[in-house]
Write a structure and sequence with these properties.
By secondary structure, the protein is of the alpha+beta class. The protein has eight helices and eleven strands. α1 runs parallel beside α3, α3 crosses α6 and α7 packs across α8.
């Protein structure tokens, strides 16, 4: 088993399981501040042990449990315009900006369209639309949903010609406490649909995302105590930069080398 997968599985099993309904009640966080970290397995193991410690003041973090599983596979398809508007907006730190992706939860077979918006402030607002079996991710109903969300949120017209720009697969454990959610991803594999080229994240890294209404989470404080700081990293931007070296992506060069050491 890949070391990072083993680490997130152990963290999940050490935590008390909670169902999805409880996670949505305690920390759904559709409007939130996101921070991402590239965490060596040994540091992740130490931080997860503190978060899930049953004797922790304020109570331990619990693990999302769906269908009896505390970690599961996620498949995503990220959509962009032919000129990669979303990628370049992020690279140039333009706001408002948005990303569009389809997510498949492997254990349940559920699919949904996700739209993540970043406005003038640093917060991210996520909108979701469930997809029916066999429904096209960007069919008429989803495109109407996208158009409505963009128009109401930022007065933006829905872009034409959205198409798959990146396909990803990873294993995820989600740790949750009141108002805080920590996503722990391992074994990330990214594929460019246009070329078929694939890159894999370093198997000794856990990709940790912290989610809160604004304040730092317990995980942020613990990771900072281990000398780690939030990275210039999103899966879409870093993976696409690794897969397409011709893109102007200097701001992610160090992150790409760390996350995808075999790229290029």
């Amino acid at each position: 088993m890949i070391p990072a997968v083993r680490a997130i599985a152990r963290a999940a099993m050490a935590a008390r399981p909670v169902p999805l309904a409880d996670v949505q009640a305690r920390a759904e966080l559709l409007t939130r501040v996101d921070r991402g970290y590239l965490v060596p397995v040994e540091v992740f193991t130490a931080v997860a042990a503190e978060l899930t410690d049953r004797g922790r003041p304020g109570g331990p973090f619990a693990a999302l449990c769906v269908n009896g599983r505390r970690w599961s596979g996620h498949r995503c398809v990220h959509y962009d315009t032919p000129d990669l508007r979303s990628f370049h907006d992020h690279r140039q730190r333009r706001r408002p900006r948005f990303t569009v992706r389809e997510r498949l939860y492997e254990d349940t077979g559920q699919r949904q369209l996700e739209i993540a918006l970043q406005g003038r402030r640093a917060e991210t607002v996520k909108h979701r639309r469930p997809l029916l079996p066999g429904e096209a991710a960007l069919g008429p109903a989803s495109h109407g949903f996208l158009a409505t969300v963009l128009a109401r949120s930022h007065g933006i017209d829905a872009p034409a010609g959205l198409r798959p720009a990146l396909a990803t697969h990873h294993q995820r454990t989600t740790l949750v406490a009141d108002g805080q959610r920590i996503t722990c991803d391992a074994a990330l594999v990214c594929r460019d649909p246009a070329t078929g080229r694939t890159v894999r994240a370093d198997g000794g890294l856990v990709l940790v995302g912290t989610r809160s209404a604004g304040r730092q989470t317990e995980a942020d404080r613990l990771l900072r105590g281990h000398g780690l700081h939030a990275a210039e990293f999103t899966t879409y931007s870093a993976a696409l930069a690794a897969l397409r070296p011709d893109l102007a992506a200097d701001r992610w060069r160090r992150t790409v080398r760390t996350a995808f050491p075999a790229a290029g």
